[in-house]
Amino acid sequence: MKQACTFLCILVFFAACKQAPSVTERVESKPPYTIVKDVEADSFVVVSAHPLATKAGIEILQLGGNAIEAAAAVQLALAAVYPRAGNLGGGGFLVYHDAATQKNYTLDFREMAPLAATRDMYLDTNGNAVDSLSRYGALAVGVPGTPAGIQVMLDRFPSGNVTWNELFRSARKYASSGYQFTEAEAAIHTKHADDFAEYAAGSCYDRGAVKQGDILINSDLDRVFEVMQGEYPKAFYTSWIADSIVNHVQRQGGILTKEDFAAYKPIWREPITTTYTDDGDQDYEIVSMPPPSSGGVALAQLLELIEPFDLRELGYQSPQAVHLMIEAERLVYADRSEHLGDADFYNVNIDALLSEAY
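RESULT FIELD:
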């Protein structure tokens, strides 16, 4: 089974660094970058959760890199500037359309549960779920998938125009020289200050309350980038990096092992494709991620449910339109809870879930 562990992977990964020479320095109150919500372009668009990571992707495209290389640069930069969700200790999905071949690809590089994981590891002695065990602490941590995912996608779709050094340049700059917290990032960091103190004591994140404009430097992360840059991302799973994470997790009572790291492999999966016809009889081909992601099936079901209705006639955010969307989403999420899971371990009948009869 795969274990989704976003926030806690960050905690354990950075706590795993052997030393924490990093410092948080307070400077001005406003970060030196603007968060843009709307953009128009005629050649390419890069969108991410942080403007500095978006900038990293734009720079790669301007160097002649392709979308995959830009995505890799964005992901690496997010590990530095958006660690609560963009980290190396987590995982993700890739949905990719190759314009040259008109083929679609989906890559699953989500975290995997440790080999020693069991069905009942998050239950108490009475068989009841203990929610905190799957969210906090060493048992909540899965085998990281992000570094391997980056390696696999770059190996398959290189442009030949971008070097490894260029892919890592922005990420290493933000890790070694620092970046300024946005107001939102400062708030979430401060909210979880006690968690950092408990799970990542002594790391650069264990700084108590911070404010917008504070600078975060993560020298340990830059050391990790240096290894990945010189020996390729796969070195994450074989070097002192894996040793450090495993040792820290086991000290905290977790079950990760070096064998887990050695066994991890991303998986190319068959995309979910559906067609949506809008009120003007325009057909759109929707390509999305299959299980273990629930998003692809859920999106396809939602579009099929609302397709018979004239949304323009109902009116944007009218009571009728909102009611339709709410009821459709309720049905989708009921199926998500009942029928969706990791297809490597659970039979997900995608054809039945997306059939017109159903």
